[in-house]
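Appendix B. Raw example, untouched.
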Amino acid sequence: MSNMLHPISRRSFLAGSAAAGAIVMMHPFSARAQAKQAHLRIMETTDLHVHVFPYDYYADKPNDTMGVARTASIIDSIRAEATNSLLLDNGDFLQGNPMGDFMAYQRGMKDGDIHPIIKAMNTLGYDCSTLGNHEFNYGLDYMFKVLNGASFPFVCANLTKGQLAADATKDELFLKPYVIVDKKLKDGAGAEQPIRIGLIGFVPPQVMTWDAKHLSGKAMTRDIVKTAQAWVPQMKEEGADIIIALAHSGMGTPAAGDNLENASILLAGVDGIDAIVTGHSHLDFPGPKFEGVAGVDNAKGTINGKPGVMGGFWGSHLGLIDLMLERDGNAWKVVSSTSEARPIFKRVDKKVMPTVESRASVEAAVKEEHEATIAYVRTPVGKTSAPLYSYFALVADDPSVQIVSQAQTWYIKDMLKDTEHKDLPVLSAAAPFKSGGRGGPDYYTDVPAGDVAIKNVADLYLYPNTVQAVAITGAQVKEWLEMSAGIFNKVEPGKADQPLINADFPSYNFDVIDGVTYRVDLAQPPKYDSKGTVLNAGSNRIVDLMFGGKPIDPAAKFVVATNNYRAGGGGNFPEINASKVIFEAPDTNRDVIVRYIVDQGTINPSADSNWSFAPVQGASVIFETGPKAKEHLAEIKAVRIEQAGEGAEGFAKYRITL
């Protein structure tokens, strides 16, 4: 599967890149360095999530935005731009795509085996890696069998065996807290100068919640910043000239707190740390999403005043920190820095164009496991007792949305069972993704009853969102549904065949909330438009909203499982934003659905008809869906639907009598 590039991509970029590669442009630090000055380039990968090949196993097709085999192709040229370099990984390499699941659940790891992601990393000459939270997803025994195959060290200073000691430096750790690498730096005059580089690693303390079943009673975690404050002075005492923190942690804020998941800004402020590589958040820094963020300087590429970088995810970028170092006597100091997250692709006219080919040696090292994974995603991992389809997802409770909600509810209940929120009722919000529209009359989920393969999950959930949960009131549940109901046009009593769907309202913003029952009164005008603006403040389309068979209490508290897009304010749903988030999962919605199917063996996605339309006297409405919808028409019980002829551009027309 190597060199999976489109011809246009190859002509547009690869030829140009090859031509440009004939002349290596040295970084200005390498060009300017004088005697006793040296340019050190720190290269970082992070959140690889087992993506070796540029291939999306869920979709079962090539994808030019991912794959460390592609990232590998820019490592050589990037090394060549610098006089001296280090290659680091920042964790979350072991889980996150079907290859990871195939190795853990199907093939397993025997002593002496080398995991495919480690095979790929071994070919690239890494100097060090830390652990991410996903390294623990398959258990400690499995993780250590994987780590044993690496030709480079792993460090993690805040993961202890059992209880914490009184002092972090007295903790019994699973891994070395740090390593000190002795290197020779070539200075600007061509002389080799000795340097001792300290590398210390950190994992989010939240692994104790996320992977409690694997870690409870076996491990503990310490606060990232406090751990660094304890170990960094010892690293200095042992002769580390400069110290680089490998933080599998997002930026966070400059505000202090205990056991923060995202603590990189505070960590960078620890005295003695000279540079920091970050990750976990699946973002690229420096980058536009960090403009105006307190505690970081996007233009200078600094975090709390220290050189820093975050190298995207799935191999999408290579993070680069360039340090100009100066030797004063026997001590080195950082006198200048630049940072960059260099991508493996470009977007041209909204199309993805790769800028590099895969490195053949990396793909060759993992070719057998790659082909086995493709066979795996095409192999059933469970069964469904009813068909999964989305032909009627916008007009009736729907099995393709139902299964997403079932999986989300199952997962969040498990995640919250030992938290302060364990007694709150859990609802789930999910929207249809494949519902025709601009995608055409075949753009629908359609999985028959019977075997379900992993690749079918991409049909159920198109986006690599992560699961999140919000805590809101019954009144806010109602407003969430009022916003969703904006997808429907107002219906006049006594009038036939009125258009039902507002084509300007995105279907991915039509959330169905499972765990409550309700009806939508189409005779009322929409309260909100597609951007969340109030149109009719007095409108109440959501009627008969019930929880547990009783009218919902507006003041009651609920947990709603959703995704990071919605929980973060995506879609502009009233009062639904990051301030309501109580749980941010490390897992994607797709992964959760796969785990749910594996756990259940046979799923029952039959829609429970928890929502329907309220009657509108003498009215009927028209909507369009795919022509294959007729095969499932008899399964729709809560709404009276009948065929109404052919629609436009290959769609079929249907009528609902209200």
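End of appendix B.
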